[in-house]
């Protein structure tokens, strides 16, 4: 079943903090670093982001297919290392990682736990780690001036419809609850509408029409927009030597912005999941980059993603 934190305790043992959580029938313990004071958040285990990046890069480099009856790993069976190299050389900057491989890899337990409980924070961190691996595994000295592309992390899982404890069991749309907001969930449904794909700025550059100062804005993924400041601070940055800029003086510089493809899909409950006499429930599924234009209305699918609550304007 889906990893569910049914209990957590803290203890001081040999100068280490231990976090305990349950994954189905298995009990997992995460050990903190030796010695020193470890930051603690109530009900959570605080992990240094650099530790997560390091563990993810190690996982991509070293995870390999095992051979039955063999004592050592065969050469050339590095699953994700090879996939990353092949995709990038083919011009597809993405890596598809199975969540089941993360949970079974001996040094990726903390990584899998953080990706499932705080995906909005740690998925972008893993994508930064993929850029580091691009420099290490794909980039050549002859292309030193080449800009490192953004690489998309695509998480998959072996959906278990029977609900055995070692896999993530898909949920019905009406089973999603508020406590799962901002967590990684697996849902099943049928596509009832697909909006036309469009371009969205992931990095926006704005310029003041008065003092010509420029700012760079980072736009988060999902149903988020860039927050353009109403006042320019160019006068303050120049020590007050120029006239104060008028309000709302910023405009976008399209040639310097970075765009990604995005699409919104409406996913509805499967007919067999709707109780008799009730109206089917649905929600919007946001996809971007290499997940755009992958399905059509009427497609039944199992999706893994971040369950998010957003403010929608009343049109």
Short description:
With 315 residues, this protein is an alpha+beta fold.
Give the name of the CATH architecture of the domain at 10-169: 2-Layer Sandwich
How much beta, percentage-wise?
25-35%
Alpha carbon gyration radius? 23 Å
Mean pLDDT: 78
Class by helix and strand content?
alpha+beta
Quaternary: single chain
Q: Could you characterize what this model shows?
A:
The protein is α+β, with helices and mostly antiparallel strands. Among the domains are: 10-169, mini-chromosome maintenance (MCM) complex, chain A, domain 1 (2-Layer Sandwich), CATH 3.30.1640; 201-259. Helix content is 20%, strand content 28%. It has 6 helices and 14 strands. The protein has helices at residues 49-62, 79-89, 99-104, 109-117, 119-137, 234-237; strands at 10-13, 16-23, 26-31, 40-41, 44-45, 94-98, 152-156, 183-194, 198-208, 214-218, 250-252, 258-268, 282-288, 300-307. The strands form 4 sheets. Strands 8, 9, 10, 11, 12, 13 and 14 form a 7-stranded antiparallel sheet that branches. α1 (49-62) packs across α5 (119-137). The longest helix has 19 residues, at 119-137. The chain is globular, with a radius of gyration of 23 Å. The protein starts with 9 loop residues before the first strand and ends in an 8-residue tail after the last strand. 18% of the residues are buried. The model is unreliable at 1-43 (pLDDT under 50).
């Amino acid at each position: 079943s889906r990893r569910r934190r049914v209990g957590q305790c803290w203890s001081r043992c040999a100068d280490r903090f231990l976090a305990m959580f349950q994954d189905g029938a298995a009990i997992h313990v995460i050990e903190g670093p030796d010695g020193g004071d470890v930051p603690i958040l109530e009900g959570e285990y605080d992990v240094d982001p650099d530790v997560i990046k390091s563990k993810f890069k190690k996982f991509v480099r070293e995870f390999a297919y095992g051979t039955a009856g063999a004592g050592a790993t065969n050469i050339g069976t590095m699953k994700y290392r090879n996939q990353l190299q092949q995709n990038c050389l083919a011009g597809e900057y993405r890596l598809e990682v199975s969540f089941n491989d993360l949970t079974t890899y001996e040094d990726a337990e903390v990584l899998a736990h953080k990706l499932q409980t705080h995906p909005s924070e740690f998925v972008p961190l893993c994508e930064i780690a993929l850029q580091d691996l691009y420099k290490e595994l794909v980039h050549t000295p002859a292309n030193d001036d080449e800009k490192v592309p953004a690489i998309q992390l695509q998480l998959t899982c072996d959906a278990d419809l029977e609900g055995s404890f070692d896999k993530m069991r898909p949920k019905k749309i009406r089973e999603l609850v508020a406590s799962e907001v901002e967590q990684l969930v697996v849902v099943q449904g049928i596509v009832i509408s697909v909006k036309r794909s469009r371009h969205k700025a992931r990095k926006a550059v704005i310029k003041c029409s008065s003092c010509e100062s420029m700012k760079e804005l980072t736009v988060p993924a999902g149903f988020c927009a860039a927050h353009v400041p109403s006042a320019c601070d160019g006068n303050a940055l120049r020590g007050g030597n120029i006239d104060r800029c008028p309000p709302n003086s910023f405009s976008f510089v399209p040639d310097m912005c970075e765009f990604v493809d995005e699409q919104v899909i409406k996913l509805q409950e499967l007919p067999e999941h709707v109780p008799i006499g009730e109206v089917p429930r649905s929600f919007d599924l946001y996809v971007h980059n290499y997940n755009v234009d992958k399905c059509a209305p009427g497609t039944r699918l199992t999706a893994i993603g971040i369950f998010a609550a957003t403010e929608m304007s009343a049109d």
